[in-house]
Amino acid sequence: LALYFHSGEREEKCIIEDIPMDTLVIGNYKVQRWDVHKQDFLESAPGLGMFVTVTTPSAEVLLSKLYGPQGTFSFTSSLSGEHIICLQSNSTRFVAFAGSKLRIHLDIRVGEHFLDETVVQAKDKVNEVNFRLEHLIEQIHHISKEQNYEREREEKFRKTSEETNSNILWWAIVQTVILISIGIWQIKSLRDFFISKKLV
C-alpha cells in the first residue's frame, strides 16, 4: 500500500489495514510542509515529527511512538483483523506556522522481509543462494497465512449469510401464518355478522 494524503499540523489521520495474525508490518513515511512563498511542498522543517499509533482489533495499543519528519516503523500483529494505523504531526517552536498544510507519503508493506543486498553481496555464492531461499520460504509462509486468514473470513461470511437466509425464511413463514390466521378470523367474523343479521 503506497499513498500520500494531506493533513494539517496536529491533525490525526488514520487508515485501516486488514492483517493476519503474527504478520510483520513495515511502514515508511515522509512528511513535506507547504511553503506559502514558493507555493509548493518542501522538505519538512527541523523539529517537525510524526506520532505513530497502531491499535489492534481488540482496541489494544500495539505501537505508540514519536518519530522524525521521515522514518520507518514496524510491528507484528498479535491478532487477525482490522488494525488502525494513525499518524499525527507535532508542532514545535521550530515550525514557522503551526497549522500549516502537510503532505504525508506513506508506504506500508504487510508480511515482507526485505533482503539486505549488502549482506547478500558480501557472502559467497552458496550462502547467497541459502539466504535467498530463506527469504522465499518466509514469503511462502506469509502467503499461506494470508490464504488461511481469507479462508476464515470467507467461512464467517458464509455462516452469517446462512443465518440471515434462515431468519428471512422463518420470518416469511411467520408472516404467512399471521396472514392466514387474520383471513380465517375475518371470514369467521363476517359469517357470524351475517348470521346475527339473519342474512344467511
Automatic annotation (TrEMBL):
Q: What is its main location?
A: endoplasmic reticulum
Which Pfam family, giving just one, matches this sequence? Answer: EMP24_GP25L
Query: Which protein is depicted?
Result: TMD11 protein
InterPro entries xrefs:
Emp24-like, GOLD_dom
**Protein's membrane topology:** Single-pass type I membrane protein
The Swiss-Prot or TrEMBL record describes its family as follows: Belongs to the EMP24/GP25L family.
What is this protein's gene name? Tmed11
Chain ranges passing through the membrane: 168-187
Sorted alphabetically, the keyword list is: Endoplasmic reticulum, Membrane, Signal, Transmembrane, Transmembrane helix
Subcellular location as annotated: Endoplasmic reticulum membrane; Membrane
Organism (species): Chionis minor (Black-faced sheathbill)
Query: Which interval of the chain is the signal sequence?
Result: none
Question: Which PROSITE patterns has this protein been placed in?
Answer: GOLD
The organism's superkingdom is given as Eukaryota
